[in-house]
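Intended use. Records like the one below are meant for learning the mapping from a protein sequence to its folded structure. Do not use them to infer anything beyond what is encoded.
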Amino acid sequence: MENTCSNCKTIITPVWRRYTLTIEEAAGYYHIGESKLRSIVDMHPNGNFYVMNGNRVLIKREKFEEYLDQATAV
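Structure written out for the chain above:
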């Protein structure tokens, strides 16, 4: 369910419905540290579970969940 901010007209989409998450959002959502997420991205330079927006990493939520399903350790 999407909500609007009480003081603005911005639509706030819940994390579980977003296509991409910032490193900070993904860390909170998956309970994985930001440093660990950054190292996972660094270890998979051609990974399909993230996209670069300038120098910002955005985690593709569903693709990252598929990656986690296949991983034996994080």
